[in-house]
Amino acid sequence: MSTPDTTVHLVRHGEVHNPEGILYGRRDGFHLSDLGRRMAEKTAEALAGRDVTVVRSSPLERARETAAPLAEKLGLEIEIDERVLESTNRFEGLTFGRGNNALRNPLLWRHLYNPFKPSWGEPYRAIVTRMMSAVHDVRRAAAGHEGVIVSHQLPIWTTRLHVEGRSFLHDPRRRQCTLCSVTSFHFVDDRIAQVSYHEPAIDLIPRARRPRAVLGGRRARGAAPRGLPARRGARVLSVRRPAAPVALLLGGVLPPHRLLRVRGHR
Fold first, then answer.
1. How many CB atoms are closer than 10 A to CB 218?
2. Which residues have C-beta within 8 Å of that of residue 265, sequence separation ≥ 6?
3. Which residues pair with 150 in a beta bridge?
């Protein structure tokens, strides 16, 4: 098997300070929490010893703040790329905190008619188009080395589904893309030869907020990138089929730990 000659790492930002449970989407003014900054430091430590020559980030504060410690350790400038922004969403700005969940309003349900597109936000295929364009630009810029893109959960997960030839229809509670996780595309020439996944900050994430997934799945796609420690956080989480229709409808709308509980579904 050929050795991948260029690697592009997609890093999800750290935890955001959002006590009111607002779906912030592309809104400005949402920064990393203290815990989020610690997560960013742990991921920076995991990647600092890599041959990273390019660091790019979504323009949103939470992404730039996640990229900052890595760029500082490597002595690199953070390049801003609009293509790796969070996806658009009709529910942006609404509150989904406890006791004030916007989706309890039946008037909003009309936006949930098509989970395949999805009808409530940016089409999955549009997300993939802009994300893959950014990935290939970093591949070219970091040719023979490694590059980092700091982005957001849904764009990263949707891109991985595309690369692995999987359906975009999914349960958001089972996305393999935890806070400050690293999804790596290993290229041979311009072809992705391997996808790997690592969770440097998993120990900082409360267990109740980790995705519902099964550890110990296939290792081929989920081994830690070469040089990253192959610890518990680097194991593959095999994504199961969604257990509840409501989870499909809300994919891309809510953080996984704030999905509605619906009678008859667990």
1. 9
2. 243, 244, 245, 246, 247
3. 11, 57
CB 115, CB 245: distance < 8 Å: no
Q: Print pLDDT tens along the chain (266 aa).
A: 556 699 999 999 999 999 888 888 889 899 999 999 999 999 999 999 999 999 999 999 999 999 999 999 999 999 999 999 999 888 888 887 666 676 677 877 777 878 878 888 899 999 999 999 999 999 999 999 999 999 999 999 999 999 999 999 988 888 999 999 999 999 999 999 999 999 999 999 888 877 765 333 333 334 444 445 443 344 333 333 333 333 444 444 444 444 333 333 32
Spacing of C-alpha 150 from chain mean position = 9
CA distances to 63, 71, 119, 126, 140 from 209, rounded to whole Å, are: 20, 28, 26, 28, 36
The structure tokens listed for 73 are 């350790």
Measured distance CA(65)–CA(194) in Å, rounded: 28
The separation between CA 215 and the C-alpha centre of its own chain, rounded to angstroms, equals: 18
Give the helix/strand (H/E) hosting 162: helix 153-163
pTM: predicted TM-score of the whole model, two decimal places: 0.79
DSSP string, 68-134: HHHHHHHT-PEEE-GGGPPPPBTTTT-BEETTEEGGG-GGGGGGGS-TTTTTTBS-HHHHHHHHHHH
Domains identified in the chain and CATH numbers: 6-258 (3.40.50.1240)
**Distance (Å, rounded) from C-alpha 243 to C-alpha 240?**
8
- Residue 261: count of CB within 10 angstroms of its CB: 8
SS3 call for 19: coil
